Amino acid sequence: MNWGFFATTVIIYVVTSLIAAWGLDLQFGSTGVLNFSFIIFVAAGAYTAAILTLGSPSGPGNVAQQQYFAGATLPFPLPWIGAMVVGGILGLLVGLVALKRLRGDYEAIVMLVVSLMALYIVLSDVGFLNGASGLALIPSPLQSGGNLTGGTGYGWFYSGLTVVVGVIVGFVMHRLMESPLGRALRAVRENERAAEAMGRNTAALRLLVFALGGSLGALSGAILVGFINAWSPGAWGFAETFLLFAAVIVGGQGNLVGVAVGAFIIFGLIIQGVLFLPQIGGDSALTECLQWITAGLLILLSMWLRPQGIIPERRRRLSRWIAPARRKRNGSGLLRWR
Amino acid sequence: MSLVIEAAGFGVVTAGVVALAAVGFTLQFAITNIFNVAVGSQLTLAAFIAYALNRTGVSIWYAMIAAGLFTGVTSVLLNRMIFQPFLRRGTSFFGLVVVGIALLLIIQFSSQAIWGASFVSYQFNAGGVFKWGPLLLNRTSLILLGIAAGTMVAVHLLLTYTRFGKSMRATAADPELASSCGIRIQLVTDATWFLAGMLSGLGGVAFGMTLGAFSVSMGSTFLVIIVAAAILGGVGQAYGAMLGALVVGIATEETSLLVSSAYSQVAAFIILILVLVVRPEGILPGVARYRGIAT
Amino acid sequence: MLKDTRTCSLERDLQAAGPSASGRSINPGAGGPPRLARARRARRALAGTLAVATVFAVATVFAVATASSSSAAGSTLEVAAVGPFTGPDAEFGALAMGMCVPAANTINADGGVLGHKLSCIPVDTRGDPADAIPVVAKLLANRSSLAAVDGPTSDEAAAVVPIFNREKVTMFASAGQSEFDKIHFPYFWRLTPPDAATGVAEGVWVWTKLHAKRVAAVYVPAATGQGNDPNAIAAFKHLGGTVVLNQELTAGSSSYSTEVAQLIRSKPQAVLLDLDSATAATYLSELKQQGGLHFPFIASETASEAEWVTAVGGAIGQSNLKYIQAMEGYETSIGSAAWVAYRTAMTAASKQLSGYSSEYLTDPYELTGWDFMNLMALAMLSKHSTDPAVYNSAILGLTQPGAGKTVVHTFQEGKQAIASGHQIQYVGASGRIVLDSFHSTTGAFAAFTIGPHSHPAGILTAGQITPLLSHILK
């Protein structure tokens, strides 16, 4: 039994989901902005890394004659850096939409629509990013001679690389959250008007957070595409954002470890774990349905047993003496939002 | 030119179908403040319930009503057994969205487990087509439009002229005050979920009829259109949802005609974004201003 | 509960507005001295975490335990049907199973291969490369008993074919993308024609057999694999025709009424159609409603698939299916002895196949799948090995004619011939197999009517297609 390839796959998927979840948590958990379009940053990063590796559409790298609007053949790690830049810019643009003082859940719907629009644009304009077929035969980074088929050894190298990148990102995020910038972000989330009164430029902070979160999402996509060697719209429906949100909420928003736990549980245990459910009779599709139903039940169970997330955000010491604004709950099902 | 008017006519028909589900969604959001992500899968389930009945020989119109009632009842149960207990447990709003996601997964894949992934169609007499000026009308479309319009009028009458409707609106505006005035919040909540569910159910079957054939993946396709129509017109306001549906329907058809079929879906959403940038609470005033949803 | 001193009046209530309603926030207040509250919270936190962790641990252990006990000791060979079993393309997965099961049953009834029985296992890729990778990785983890793969489909082939090729697993693919026409993957085999060839065949058909000079093209870009209509349009124009309407649709919309109206107004003599099941059902039912369902339609082999026929037939009525024809690769094999053997096996296996319909009896994917399975088994016999790394190279030879070769039509015949020391050429249910060096095929095409009594309405030879194809693809 050779579990090597499967192990590398799980590691890469979990760590890239983790990086994306941290980006989402940055946008959402630290500033309260509910970005349901997050997956488009992951997609943008993946596509950017892809076209920066495939080369120009009319060039020799485009073996399969796929259609896309531009490309270049850049050595590693430039495609990844390019992806992060594109993710940051896209994040900035989406952040401009989010700047409008919209209530949390309302904003969520707007973001959902944004993600769907992005999907339609890519699907409709085939010359942009090859439409529904997506991009394929994308070379992996640091592979000699454009060999598309890398061995299991390469798989371990790649998962190691992914883990290293994950650790670096985690470290940077940690420093960020403990820095004055991190405090400013939390101030904006807790009480935006007070933060403004204190002289914080909340608009600039929100934009910054969107750009940073977008970069992280894009990085995650770039890493993924280097492993999968293909990327198509089926991989970034708005449902994927939902799973990222589930990871952040189940694990615990606003703190890195919590999100890490959440990513591990959702993308590791649940999504990969349900692959191991025994086959039911001969009807293959039934088992697939049961896998998804099980995933849904497990998420419900986790929310039930631990509604505040497995590792809730650490209450910072300074705020012990100040009662935070709480949400009032009414048992009859009405929820008042601040 | 006549094709432009014809396209507008088609847009109105689509709008009628979208409006049913959109009004349900917006009412429920207005009164209970919960963004029920699972509504897409409830819609699909309703369409399949109607199919199951239709297959045994029941007329599609009775099946539609039955599916609507079924969805209404299951919505109430969904709230009582899932959302409310989670709320009591202290789940944050965002947590409720995750709960909704989990429910979406469960309901959608249970539907697939029962009916499979294949396509099904309703058996009904679609009726002929006839021209009325530049408009091309079809009997079924007209009936659906009539049902949609009739339901909208009924909802309007309920909310404006009945005491119970006023209780619902009062609860939407200010639950604490409403409660201390003696309004039975639980009853209002149940009624809201039932109404929203029924409208979603009717909308789901209507979708099924206009699609020709559908499968379990139909719900997710329409979730965002419904939501977009609701917030475009002004969230929390039933007429807003109808207006939003009209805008979405007509914009889609006219864009197919005047620009390109490939961009018809995108157009509706671009309009939505523009409206939100200019006037975030939507076209008609809804609960947005009350609740500080958008300033 | 706060006591509100305002007057209770529903009317007043309804006029209550303003941010005060939403701005109120209440601190539920302390429930005891801070230290105790902290301890209580800590205990509850611990309990909650333990509860969740236990649930997951139990689930994982149970899952892994049952997983490892489900794989047999090595006497069963697995053929994996790799494709989408959930999602919008869920029928492809069912088709992949249908490629495997009838042949596996027949071979097993004959004693299996080299003492091993065959079993078909479904592997759900969910229809996109990102989701396909983990399931393929898991499949390959336990690959000592993996004999071959039926699939992948066009949805995930781009990502998955290189992996199977690297792992030396033989693939009998249904993916139609043109990139596989020109890239050398030794373990990749495809018996159904690439989409580009089908597209050209459609264009040629409309010009030469339907004698249409004005044609409309209605398609979702890349609806099925690479998408046939651009090539069909190119071929048609090259032959001298005019395209009066070029409609690119977005899939899954709830209404195409305006597009349908435009189609009717453009008055084409034939329509090149390339739509997925859902879009086709909606589009064609609206066309019927507007009274325009009278054009001849030509589509790709997707239109003859059971799912497409069910969806569209349900939407427009079975009697209206006569307007639509599906262009498929074709060999004069239906009715031959090999095909009869296939039909017997497929009919017997129908109960085991969730997607079964009588269409499977003439479906090109199912026919070629049956042939693949037989080829695989015969290659194993000829090389005395069940390892794809060993038997894969024998497959090509089994399809080629040669002096002194015995022509066989079923696995049984082939087994006997090999046992008596003969070289064989396998001509199966899909007829004579002609593969190029990329293990891809182009041959004759036929336009099939769709529905329960599907039959070829006319045939195009390879000579009519291939030169035009090379010219267009350049």
Number of strands of chain B: 2
Given the C-alpha coordinates, what overall shape of chain A results? globular
What is the CATH fold-level name of chain B?
ABC transporter involved in vitamin B12 uptake, BtuC
Question: What is the overall pLDDT average of chain B?
Answer: 84
Helix-strand sequence of chain A: HHHHHHHHHHHHEE
Major sheet: arrangement of strands of chain B? 1-2
Low-pLDDT regions of chain B: none
Which structural category fits the helices and strands of chain B?
Answer: mainly alpha
Most strands sheet of chain B? 2 strands, antiparallel
Strand content of chain A: under 5%
Structural class of the secondary structure composition of chain A? mainly alpha
| Residues in helix, % of chain A | 55-70%
CATH architecture of chain B: Orthogonal Bundle
Domain count of chain B: the total is 1
Q: Give the radius of gyration of chain B.
A: 19 Å
Strand order of the largest sheet of chain A: 1-2
Question: How many helical stretches of chain B?
Answer: 12
Largest sheet of chain A: 2 strands, antiparallel
Explain the overall architecture:
The complex is a heterotrimer of chains A (338), B (295) and C (474). Chain A is 63% helix and 1% strand. With 338 residues, chain A is mainly α. A two-stranded antiparallel sheet of chain A has the order 1-2. Chain A starts with a helix and ends with a strand. Chain B has one domain (2-291): ABC transporter involved in vitamin B12 uptake, BtuC (Orthogonal Bundle). Chain B has twelve helices and two strands. In chain B, β1 (129-132) and β2 (135-138) form a beta hairpin. In chain B, α1 packs parallel to α5 (139-161). In chain C, the strands form three sheets. Chain C has a seven-stranded mixed sheet with strand order 7-6-8-9-10-13-14, sandwiched between helices. By secondary structure, chain C is an alpha/beta fold. Helix content of chain C is 46%, strand content 15%. The model of chain C is unreliable at 1-7, 10-32 and 65-73 (pLDDT under 50). The interface between A and C is large, with 73 and 73 residues.
